[in-house]
C-alpha cells in the first residue's frame, strides 16, 4: 500500500481494512504507520542480507562472488519491487530522521558486506586503490542504480533484455575498476569549477 498509494496517503484505518482487521487491533501492535513501515523496511533489509549471504557462500573466488552478488541484488529488487520501494522510495522524513541517513543506518550490515567483498576482490585481483572506499561505493552505487531503474521501469519490450544489460554493466564496471585510477579530490574541484563556469 505504501508503494502503490504513497506513504502520506495511507492511513492505519486503510491498512486495517486491507488486511481485515479493525484499526483498534492495529493500534495494539503499531502506534502509527511509521512503525509499520519501519518493520517492513527492517524485514526487507534482512531478506537482502540472507540473499547476499546465500549467493556469496556458493562462490569461493572473490571476483565470482562479487559478480554473482551484484546479479543477485538486482534480481532480488526486481523480484520484490514493492518491498524495495518501501525501503528506498519511502518518505523523506523517517520519524525525524532524513531518509538517506535512515536507510544507511538500517542497511549498515548489508552495505558493510558490499564494501568488504569489494575490498576482498581488489586485494585478490591486485586492483589499484584496493582499499579505497570511494571505488567500492562506485561499484555498488552503479549496481543499486541499475536495480532502481529496473524496478521503476519494469520490462519494456523495445529495450534490450534486462539480463544482458546487467551483464554488460558488470563487465563495464569491472573493466573500469581495473583501468581507471581513483580520481583525486582536486579533479572533482576542477570539474565542478568548469561546470559552474559553463552555466554563467
If you had to describe this structure to a student in words, what would you say it looks like?
The chain is mainly alpha-helical. The chain has a single domain (about 35-185), classed as Tetracycline Repressor, domain 2, CATH 1.10.357.10. It is built from eleven helices and two strands. The protein has helices spanning about 1-5, 10-20, 25-30, 35-55, 60-80, 80-90, 100-105, 110-125, 135-155, 160-180, 185-200; strands at about 95, 95-100. Helix 4 packs antiparallel against helix 5 (about 60-80), helix 5 (about 60-80) packs antiparallel against helix 8 and helix 5 (about 60-80) packs parallel to helix 9 (about 135-155).
Alpha-carbon Rg, integer: 20 Å
Q: Helix fraction?
A: over 70%
Instruction: Count helical runs.
Output: 11
Taking the alpha carbons of the first and last residues, their distance comes to 45 Å
| Apparent shape | globular
Low-confidence stretches: 195-199
Number of domains: 1
Average pLDDT taken over every residue: 81
H/E element sequence: HHHHHHEEHHHHH
CATH architecture verdict: Orthogonal Bundle
Strand order, largest beta sheet: 1-2
Biggest β-sheet strands, sense, barrel: 2 strands, antiparallel
CATH superfamily: Tetracycline Repressor, domain 2
Beta strands, count: 2
Task: Indicate the CATH topology.
Answer: Tetracycline Repressor, domain 2
Estimate what percentage of residues fall within beta strands: under 5%
**How would you describe the oligomerization state of the chains in this entry?**
single chain
Amino acid at each position: 500500500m505504501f508503494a502503490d498509494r504513497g506513504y502520506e496517503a495511507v492511513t492505519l484505518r486503510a491498512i486495517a481494512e486491507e488486511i481485515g482487521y479493525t484499526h483498534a487491533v492495529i493500534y495494539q501492535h503499531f502506534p502509527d504507520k511509521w512503525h509499520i513501515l519501519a518493520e517492513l523496511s527492517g524485514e526487507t533489509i534482512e531478506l537482502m542480507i540472507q540473499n547476499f549471504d546465500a549467493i556469496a557462500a556458493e562462490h569461493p573466488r572473490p571476483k565470482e562472488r562479487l559478480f554473482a552478488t551484484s546479479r543477485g541484488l538486482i534480481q532480488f529488487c526486481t523480484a520484490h519491487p514493492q518491498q524495495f520501494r518501501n525501503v528506498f522510495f519511502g518518505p523523506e522524513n523517517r520519524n525525524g530522521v532524513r531518509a538517506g541517513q535512515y536507510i544507511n543506518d538500517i542497511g549498515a550490515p548489508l552495505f558493510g558486506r558490499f564494501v568488504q567483498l569489494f575490498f576482498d576482490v581488489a586485494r585478490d585481483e591486485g586492483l589499484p586503490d584496493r582499499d579505497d572506499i570511494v571505488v567500492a561505493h562506485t561499484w555498488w552505487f552503479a549496481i543499486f542504480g541499475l536495480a532502481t531503474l529496473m524496478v521503476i521501469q519494469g520490462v519494456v519490450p523495445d529495450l534490450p533484455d534486462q539480463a544482458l544489460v546487467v551483464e554488460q554493466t558488470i563487465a563495464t564496471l569491472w573493466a573500469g575498476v581495473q583501468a581507471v585510477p581513483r580520481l583525486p579530490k582536486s579533479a572533482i574541484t576542477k570539474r565542478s569549477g568548469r561546470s559552474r563556469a559553463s552555466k554563467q
